[in-house]
Specification:
The protein is α+β, with helices and mostly antiparallel strands. The protein is built from 13 helices and twelve strands. Strands 1-2-8-7-6-5 form a six-stranded mixed β-sheet, with helices on both faces. Strands 3-4-9-10-11-12 form a six-stranded mixed β-sheet. The chain is globular and about 55 Å long. The N and C termini lie far apart (about 40 Å).
Length: about 325
C-alpha cells in the first residue's frame, strides 16, 4: 500500500512556517517558548500557561503538517455543544497518517514515555506505517507534538533529533495537556485522522482516498486526566462526523461506510471513561475499532454515489461533558 502520489510536499517544511508564526504570536496566544538543555525549542501551549482555543487550532494544523485546515465552528451538530472544529485536507493520507497520527512511541531510561505525533514522525520513519505509505520527508527542521504536561528531558530531545537526522537545535517540541484548552481542541481536530486510521485497519486502499472533511465538538476542559481523556474521546466517538471522497467501486465505498463508524464496535454505547475503567486503565485492552467518528459519509467520485452510516449520540456526549 502506498500513498501513490507524486505530490509529496514536506510536512516539516510546511509545519515549520506555521510554528514560526505561532512563536511570533506566542504572547498573544498565551504560550511559552523556551530553549531546552539540548538546544531544542520547546513550546508550552497549556501546561504552565493558559494557552487557548486559537493555540489549539493552530496546533491542530501543525500536527497535520500544514496539509490541512482547522477552523472553529458554532455548528458542531450537537445542540448543547455547538462549539466545534471543522477539519479539512486535500491530502488526507499524508496529513493524517503521515503526520498527525500519534504513532511514535518515545521512551527513555529515565522513565519518560510519550506518544509522538506531528511531522517529525515523517523524518524518523521508525514506524512500519511509512513503508506502506511510501512517504519520505526530508527537511533540516522537525516538529514533534506531545500530548502531555512536560517537555521531554534533554536526553530524549537528543534521541528524537538523532532519529530525525537533524540537530537538536533544529527540533521543536510542542506540548499541551489533554485537559487544557489547546489540548482539547487539537484532539477534536483528529476526527478525520481516526477515520483514516480505521480505513487503513479495514484494508481500504489508501490510494483511493482523495479528500476528507470532519467535524467534532470541542470538549470542555477538565483538570482530571481520566475525565479529560474520556471527554476528548467521546467528542469523536459519539459526536464526530466525517465525509471521505474516494475512488473505486460502489461496493468498496459502501463497505467502507458501513464498517467505519464507531457504533460497529461491540463496546460502543458508554462514555469512554467508563469503558476505560472497565479495563482497569489499560488503554491497549480497548477494542481499537471504537476509535472512529460517530457519523460517516463516503462519496464515490467515480460513480457519484454516496453512502451513509452511523449516528450521533448527543445523550452520551451530554453525560460525558456535564
Amino acid at each position: 500500500m502506498s500513498s501513490g502520489s507524486s505530490f509529496a510536499p514536506s510536512v516539516n517544511a510546511r509545519a515549520g512556517v506555521l510554528v514560526d508564526d505561532l512563536v511570533l504570536a506566542a504572547d498573544a496566544l498565551r504560550c511559552a517558548v523556551t530553549t531546552g538543555e539540548a538546544g531544542e525549542r520547546c513550546i508550552d501551549l497549556g501546561a504552565n500557561v493558559p494557552g487557548g482555543l486559537e493555540a489549539g487550532r493552530r496546533l491542530g494544523e501543525i500536527c497535520m503538517g500544514g496539509l490541512g485546515t482547522v477552523t472553529l465552528t458554532s455548528s458542531s451538530g450537537l445542540e448543547r455543544w455547538p462549539l466545534g472544529v471543522v477539519v479539512h485536507s486535500s491530502n488526507p493520507v499524508i496529513a493524517c497518517l503521515g503526520s498527525q497520527y500519534a504513532g511514535w512511541t518515545i521512551t527513555d531510561d529515565s522513565g519518560f514515555f510519550a506518544l509522538g505525533s506531528g511531522p517529525a514522525r515523517a523524518l524518523s520513519r521508525v514506524e512500519e506505517l511509512y513503508t506502506e505509505l511510501g512517504y519520505v520527508d526530508k527537511h533540516y527542521t522537525g516538529t514533534l507534538v506531545i500530548e502531555g504536561d512536560t517537555a521531554p528531558p534533554p536526553a530524549v530531545a537528543t534521541k528524537v533529533a538523532a532519529a530525525c537526522g537533524i540537530k537538536p537545535s533544529d527540533l521543536t517540541v510542542m506540548y499541551a495537556p489533554t485537559g487544557s484548552l489547546a489540548g482539547t481542541v487539537q484532539i477534536a481536530a483528529r476526527v478525520l485522522e481516526v477515520a483514516l486510521h480505521k480505513a487503513h485497519s479495514l484494508h481500504f486502499d489508501l490510494n483511493n482516498i482523495v479528500d476528507g472533511y470532519g467535524v467534532a465538538p470541542i470538549a470542555p476542559p477538565v483538570p482530571d486526566f481520566v475525565k479529560a481523556m474520556g471527554r476528548t474521546n467521546d467528542a469523536i466517538i459519539y459526536g464526530g462526523r466525517i465525509q471521505l471522497f474516494v475512488r473505486g467501486t460502489d461496493a468498496e465505498a459502501e463497505k467502507l461506510a458501513q464498517n467505519l463508524p464507531s457504533n460497529t464496535c461491540s463496546i460502543y454505547g458508554k462514555p469512554f471513561a467508563e469503558i476505560f475503567a472497565a479495563v482497569n486503565g489499560d488503554f491497549y485492552k480497548i477494542d481499537a475499532s471504537l476509535f472512529s467518528p460517530a457519523l460517516v459519509t463516503v462519496s464515490n467520485l467515480d460513480t457519484g454515489s454516496s453512502f451513509h452510516a452511523g449516528k450521533l449520540a448527543p445523550d452520551i456526549v451530554d453525560a460525558s461533558f456535564k
